[in-house]
Amino acid sequence: MSIEKFIAEKISRTSEIKINENVKSVFPLFGAFEEKKWAEGWEPILIYPDKEVIEEGTTFKTDGNDEEFEYLWRITKYYPEEFHIQYMVSTENRSWTITIKCNSENENETLAAITYTFVGLNEKGNRLNKEHLSRMYKNNLKDWEEEIHNYLNNK
């Protein structure tokens, strides 16, 4: 019995969004639990620790979709003084990181560079990664920019 060799594919894309607010106010909005304030339908389920705190090791899950039951998330890098956070997300088919680095343009303007890097764990994962990346960056994350601005303007 021969096993077909699988070739994992790695794909990545970065976009930058501009938020008209101070970086100290913007950066926390990229935390898993603060994101609920601006991202409709975002409902992380905490696994570790026992309270909603952002730190390296914070672990939670979210519902998946028709092709993947759920997503397991873990904060792998968290440098609040540098306005830098990274998540590792995984399913049975793929894994990816989401890296967010915010920089202050001036007192009332923040640039956030958001990078998604996917690795397929099987052929289905390779396919899902391409579809997800294409859909996610269809508008270069301007939908995130708009949602965050809507939240900030209405809080």
Features:
single chain, 155 residues, alpha+beta, Alpha-D-Glucose-1,6-Bisphosphate, Chain A, domain 4, seven-stranded antiparallel beta sheet, globular
SSE topology sketch:
Blueprint: E1 10-19, H1 23-26, E2 45-48, E3 59-63, E4 70-79, E5 84-90, E6 94-106, E7 109-120, H2 123-136, H3 142-154
Antiparallel strand pairs: 1-7, 2-3, 3-4, 4-5, 5-6, 6-7
Would you tell me the overall average pLDDT? 94
SSE pattern, N- to C-terminal: EHEEEEEEHH
Task: Quickly give the structural class.
Answer: alpha+beta
CATH topology: Alpha-D-Glucose-1,6-Bisphosphate, Chain A, domain 4
Strand content: 35-45%
Shape: globular
| CATH class category | Alpha Beta
Number of helices: 3
CATH architectural grouping: 2-Layer Sandwich
Task: Walk me through the structure.
There is one protein chain. With 155 residues, this protein is of the alpha+beta class. The protein has one domain (11-154): Alpha-D-Glucose-1,6-Bisphosphate, Chain A, domain 4. Helix content is 20%, strand content 39%. It has three helices and seven strands, in the order βαββββββαα. The chain has helices at 23-26, 123-136, 142-154; strands spanning 10-19, 45-48, 59-63, 70-79, 84-90, 94-106, 109-120. Strands 1-7-6-5-4-3-2 form a seven-stranded antiparallel β-sheet. Strand 5 and strand 6 form a beta hairpin. The longest helix has 14 residues, at 123-136. The radius of gyration is 16 Å and the shape is globular. The model has no long low-confidence stretch (mean pLDDT 94).
